[in-house]
Each structure stands twice: as C-alpha cells, then as structure tokens.
Amino acid sequence: MIPAPTPAELEKYRQDIVFSETLWQKQLTFHTTWGLFSPKEIDAGSRLLLEFLQKQYLPRDEEQAKEISKCLDVGCGYGALGLTLAANYPQSAITMIDKDYVAIEYCRKNAGVNNLKNANMFLSNGLNQVDEHDFDLIVTNLPAKSGKELYTLMFCDIHSKLKSGGACYIVTINGLRQFVKRHFTDIFGNYKKLKQGSVYTVAMATKE
Hints:
Layout: H1 7-14, E1 17-23, E2 26-32, H2 44-57, H3 62-65, E3 70-74, H4 80-88, E4 93-98, H5 101-113, E5 119-123, E6 135-141, H6 148-161, E7 162-173, H7 177-188, E8 192-196, E9 200-206
Parallel strand pairs: 3-4, 3-6, 4-5, 6-7
Antiparallel strand pairs: 1-2, 7-9, 8-9
Helix pairs in contact: 6-7
C-alpha cells in the first residue's frame, strides 16, 4: 500500500513550480502548477516552434523589431510562446488566449513577474472571444485531443484574423500533420512543412 502523503508533501504540491529559461535573447521566469501542460519545463513542441520562429522573427535591430505589430498566441498555456514574443518585441501588442482559466491566471502572473506590459491574455474557446483582426503573426502549439471540429473552426478563424501577408505557425503531434496539411491547403491555399521530428511537426501558412 502506498503511504498517504504527509501534510508537508501536500503543501509542497500546492506551491508554484518555478523555473527560468533563456528564450531567444531574453531570460524569462515561469510560475506553473500541477494540472497545466508541461509544468516543469518548456515542452519539446514549443521549443521546436520557437526555434523556427526565431529564424524568422528574432529582432536583430530596431527596424526588424517593428515587423510584428500584433501577434496572437492560441492556446497559450502559462505563456511560453506569447511571452517570448512579448519580451523580444516590447513595442508589439501580444494577445494570448486559452480555454483554461488556470492557464490564463498563470500566464497573467508570468507577464507580471517578467514585467511584460505589452501582453494581454483572456479566456477563449478557440478564437470565439477574439474581436481584433489584422494580426501579423498567429502561433499555436495545437493541443492533441481537442477534436477535429474545433481545429477546423480554429483554422478558419485564424485565417480570418490574419492581415493580408500575415503568417500562422503551428506545431502539432505527427499524427495530425496530414490533417493540418489538408486544411491549411484548403483554407489558406498554401502549406509549408518546416520540420518533422520523431514526435512533432512544425508547419506554416500565409494569408494571401
């Protein structure tokens, strides 16, 4: 029989998990908790997506930093993607959404901990609470089990929210890569696979 946890162990479980990461050029501190996705470290899918975003969007000088004025992080969790963009693009408006109120709570906490005043986060099932349009960039680490009906709605809404020439970058488990390819091709008219690893695929599409 497994012994019952002691009061001290239970209290430890209730405390925030805290870790720091250097993402692009900025060190960020994240508070998380049990029940959130990948609470002890940035997950491999987000890391892979950030690697490819860095190649396109890491600001190397003041002029390049102006290329993103509005960005949307769909399914932001505790903020790995959106807060990386907010830290490296302090003059840009970063919107972050998630359907989990605990994720939004911790995302908001992490924005405060890192003094990122250009990030705004709120609850939304897919993009149904997003009123803004003309995003330059939309990013998402697509959850594996939300259902293809919701994914279809998300992709159509992402396309409608992008400005002409804007881009959507996505990381998915490999089992969804053909679904994403078909729907991006149908909805956006284009699809580009950037990396397929043993578990995750990074892809993008642009609004023409």
